[in-house]
Amino acid sequence: MTEAWIIDACRTPRGLGKLGKGSLADIHPQQLGACVLKALVERNNLNTADVDDVIWGTSCQKGRHGGDMGRMSALDAGFDIRSSGVTLDRFCGSGITSVNIAAASIMSGMEDVVIAGGAEMMSSYGHDNGLPEIMDSGNLRLRARHPQTNQGVCADTIATLEGI
To answer: What's the pTM value of the predicted model, to 2 decimals?
Structure first.
């Protein structure tokens, strides 16, 4: 079995998550993804043609978070067009799932160089008509069987129940 190594880690700049108030509020999420990808390329003298895949996670693939952020961020960062990109949604576990899939792809021998990560830009939601919506995306039949609320309310409820 091939080993998978984490060579570097990088994160985006941080700012207030409020539309019109935060310093990053008018920047597209793909640009923030591109910022991370460019930094990884520069810090590691990476030839982007050698990158087999960019696996990206985001918990709301609508509006500015839609359109395959992994691929679009790579293109925005100037990656070689042969570098593939994909975006997945596993809610709050999207980023770590991206890293797990990247490691599995390398360990299986299917790929050699993969960049994995995730993004959720809260200030973008004002640009997207109030996103995020409830995770069922308006599926009333599913909602009747499995009532859902947004994750912020759920986290607060769990913290209260657990005395955190």
So the answer is: 0.79
What backbone torsions phi and psi does residue 22 show, to the nearest 5 degrees? -85, 150
Q: Is the dihedral of CA 132, 138, 144, 146 positive or negative?
A: negative
Tokens at residue 152, please?
A: 């912020």
Distances (CA, A) of 38 to 42, 43, 122: 6, 9, 22
Q: Give the CATH number for residue 14.
A: 3.40.47.10
Tokens standing for residue 128: 């997207």
Angle (nearest 5°) at CA 67 between 123 and 21: 10
- Indicate the residue type of 164: I
Specify burial of residue 127 (Cβ count, 10 A radius: 0-12, 13-18, 19+).
middle
Q: Are residues 73 and 154 in the same domain?
A: no
Cβ-Cβ contacts under 8 Å for 51 (sequence gap 6 or more): 74, 79, 80, 83, 113, 114, 115
Secondary structure of residue 73 in the 3-state scheme: helix
Does one domain contain both 75 and 5?
A: yes
Question: In this predicted model, what pLDDT tens digit does every residue of 59-76 receive, in sequence order?
Answer: 777 766 677 889 999 999
